[in-house]
Amino acid sequence: MDLLGRLFGAEDEEPRVALFVDGPNVLRDEFDVDLDDVREAAAEVGQLTAKRLYLDEHATPGLIQAAEARGFEVIVTSGDVDVRLAVDVTRFVVEDRADVVAVASRDTDFKPALEAANAYGCRTLAIAPGEFGRSDALRNAATERVTLESGDDGPTLVGYDG
User: Fold this and answer.
1) What does the alpha-carbon distance between residue 7 and residue 55 come to, in Å, rounded to a whole number?
2) Are 159 and 70 spatial neighbours (Cβ–Cβ below 8 Å)?
3) Among 36, 75, 121, 162, which residue is least crowded by beta carbons within 10 Å?
4) pTM (two decimals)
5) Buried (b) or exposed (e) across 99-123, using 16+ Cβ within 10 A?
6) Domains in the chain, CATH or no CATH each
7) d(CA 70, CA 130)
């Protein structure tokens, strides 16, 4: 919500949620995570205005195509996705493009990005890819947290080998 909306009582609007998914750390066989479940977890806190999946050069073309079919903007980097994802989270917050920043990861490296978002008054949501993929440091940095359950009956989207 922009400054004018805050000043003139538009707080009844549904919060804008920007979802950032750390593909290499979430879409792994051992977590059995589906992107639809990640999207639904983020949508629980507001209106999804951005859905970004970050992948490295090892992602399969099938994964990229399936993610795009599910409405995700796919960002492929030539190396580690962490820096690009963290910079994009920070830009969304500083540019007031989201009221809630949701990060799906098990990587503690995103803790500073969530802390920066919190400092700017943005709500933060840490989405963990299951109990064993949970980062307590990331969860503790977020204002809200969700752990996805494994073994849902829905389809699983996996595009990384190990």
Assistant:
1) 39
2) no
3) 162
4) 0.85
5) bbbbbbbbbebbbebbebbbeeebb
6) 16-147 (3.40.50.1010)
7) 21
